[in-house]
Write a structure and sequence with these properties.
The structure holds two protein chains of two kinds. By secondary structure, chain A is an alpha/beta fold. In chain A, 38% of the residues lie in helices and 16% in strands. Chain A has a domain at 5-54 and 99-155: Hypothetical Protein Ychn, Chain: A (3-Layer(aba) Sandwich). Chain A has six helices and five strands. In chain B, strands 1-2-4-3 form a four-stranded mixed sheet, with helices on one face. In chain B, a hairpin with a 2-residue loop joins strand 3 and strand 4 (67-73). Classes of the chains: A alpha/beta, B alpha+beta.
Chain lengths: 156, 75
């Protein structure tokens, strides 16, 4: 049996959108897939050593379940983002969902390969020293070298 | 049922029961049995899918007081 492969393009840097790439990648790796994640644009935030700035915003996010209905005018007040993030993290913890850090570590342990888009690293003037060490830097063509041969390829 | 190793995956949500099962199996020998206890109802279908896709054998699945008990034999 040849090893199956999965590639994910992670483009979002909010808490809610950070979970799918890491959940799918760690699961696929557990199932024996060879996995690569290409982090580009805001997805690069998920490679930071410190993930505490990865937040969720109730603003312009009408699908987010709220404990009490909240008018947009309230959602835009300072501190609302931090509060929503704190509440979401508490909810995740209560339900036994792993933290982002834990899922990311599980991915690395399972040899999921992380590739950071060099172009967007330069574009946003990110400091590579703020990223975790297990990251390779490359471009779209490098990603296609792997993605072109995968069984599953997802854009998140 | 006899088992060689036990994994407590209670109060863990997807994908942790599967990922931790994979890790627990890694240092076991072929034919050995891993007992996994989980509380995530999603694990019932996921453990079967894990077995189907990895070639390990899910010997049995049972529910007991809201806990799901799996016996997985390493291929």
């Amino acid at each position: 049996m040849t090893t199956k492969k999965m590639a994910i393009i992670a483009t979002k840097g909010t808490l809610d959108m950070a979970y799918p790439p890491f959940i799918l990648a760690s699961t696929a790796a557990a199932l024996g897939y060879d996995v690569q994640i290409f982090f580009t644009f805001y997805g690069l935030q998920l490679l930071r050593k410190d993930l505490s700035d990865v937040m969720i915003s109730p603003l312009a996010n009408p699908a987010m379940p709220m404990p009490v209905p909240m008018p947009v005018m309230v959602q835009m007040l300072p501190g609302m983002e931090s509060m929503a993030t704190m509440m979401m993290k508490q909810k995740l913890k209560k339900h036994g969902v792993a933290s982002l850090e834990e899922l990311r570590d599980l991915c690395l342990e399972a040899d999921v390969k992380f590739i950071a888009c060099q172009m967007t690293v330069d574009l946003f003037e990110f400091d590579k020293s703020e990223f975790i060490e297990n990251v390779e830097y490359g471009g779209a063509a490098m990603f296609f070298g792997f993605a072109g041969d995968t069984d599953i390829c997802l854009f998140v | 049922m006899n088992f060689d190793k036990e994994l407590d995956a209670r109060n863990l949500s997807c994908p942790l029961p599967i990922v931790k099962t994979k890790k627990a199996l890694a240092d076991m020998a072929s034919g050995q049995v891993l007992k996994v206890t989980a509380t995530d109802v999603g694990a019932v279908k996921d453990m079967q899918a894990f077995a189907d896709q990895t070639g390990n054998t899910l010997l049995s699945t049972a529910e007991q007081n809201g806990e799901y008990i799996f016996f997985m034999q390493k291929k």
